[in-house]
């Protein structure tokens, strides 16, 4: 069920005596090419006895998984004669030296990230200092909250009228801007003027959001001594939707942790939190009157019946507790809404259905069983599955009971109850504007043997059940005057967008995610835009932040869409030239999409670019068992997302591949230098544990040469196994013998380090071992993967 697996001894297994071990060999259905494919918190259980966690698997470290050292372990396909042979290898120090060889320009190249639309003046020779004298803040009434926000940060007094000098004024004025001949919506535009001649800082905006973004620019310009150079900036975003998905269903994050991510989103002018609140593995929001959703659906423990809690999915262990267990009370959720609204971030709650609904289904089934002997009518009021359904299906995540039944009236009673609760929670803080119902990955075979669905068809319903359900939800949400949102496959029928005019909602937002190049799904985003839907681009190959930064088994991440996706891959995303994003198959082989003989059917043009509403980075939470790993996966990729969502680069419309690559690389060099010389230090000061990239290195004669993905970060090396470390000055240093060197990158303040790398480890030459997966059980467990399938055949 899901990804909870068990091993039980059969007759003849024998006994494992104290101090002894037993060798167990098993065959896994799918490849394991990363350490994080193995979940922690393995446990023993026996009837009538409390479960016991195997001690060395406890927690998040995965230290019981032995290192992946051979191609047979880290490749999904080792058959060299197969076209899909996996050519990916972990980066050696030399490979990383080539891949991340970025010129160190010595300083940040951007004043602000994301890059402003227009910088008319920037004069470092003339500056104001806001930490001297008695600076005050004056704000127009409509912008008073933004003035207060800045006054709280800098400790300045709010005044009712401007003084002669040393003040920051917020003026409510229209700031009209255009991008490529297209007028930008004025709500988020601003103008910032820093005038040293009279020590005045002026912020102009017609809406509070624009003033807030001017504050973020100001906070980026100030140096550690309080100095801000003479500046004139006119700025506004290319996209109205600049989003981040945070998944709290798979692993729960407290509201305080969500506050941290809202802070860093606001810092980089991101304005939509796509809040993935429900999934198979958890329901995380209290719905008054449906307490079972959080009593059962928000708790994971060892309960095979799932009547007290859900199973311990994703390595959460046999006992209830974070991160597998947890939920937001109504007031918790409203606190998140308030915190987000103060930072001009819209919270978009997602209730994933009809698929991905195991937690909801089990919760409402428990409610039914609790009440059926007392009041059958009330017991079935919110039931989500047909109890007589004999359909046989399995979801992508291996659930056999995760699809709400669209033929039950009680399903819509449940959905209506949830929408009404959300509407009430949002009403007086940040009114609910859209309902995101998920709609993705409904397994084939669902409802085929449901008697209730058979009766519905006999009653005269002729549309397919999926379209029927979407229509019901659309009609329901339109009564609240809500827009509707879903993942692309939620509004797809027979491979094409459903007819837009079937639905009464003013706007329907489609989140286009499935662009895996070899699947032929890259065209979906433009098909939806051309069909009249508003499209949010979150292509999995570029903007799924749950994928690893490198093709290394020690890097955390999933790899179903692409073997790896680093910060540069986010940065070079081409939202309105999607086919040019194609780089490699998942195997690592180069790919050319929509070139030469491809037809308009294969690669439709974007005919309605105004329907591209924006872009989103999506961080799904299967592996996010701690704040540290969440920070690591989110940052610094999120900064590259913010750059592309706010700023249209000069090279994005280039159709010549050579010129496109030249423009990308030139711009990336400036961006990478800005991260390494400035932005990562800002994140350090705020306590974010972003990923520090390992260095690249080669030895030329007796000279150790190093590079790092973000110039400005320092590199250290050790020739005595890590007992002592030495600094590599200016990327080069003389060494006597490079054979035993290990290296690491250090953070700007020297408080954190990258994972260590060995200089001469050559992953391409390692020889494969024999096929087997091994597990040793003693005082603990050692999990050793020796090989994956050879072309899927054992």
Automatic annotation (TrEMBL):
Residues 239-648 form the Glycoside hydrolase family 20 catalytic domain. GO terms for cellular component: membrane. The active site is at 441 (proton donor). Residues 112-235 form the Beta-hexosaminidase bacterial type N-terminal domain. Its EC number is 3.2.1.52. Coiled coil: none annotated. Belongs to the glycosyl hydrolase 20 family. This is beta-N-acetylhexosaminidase.
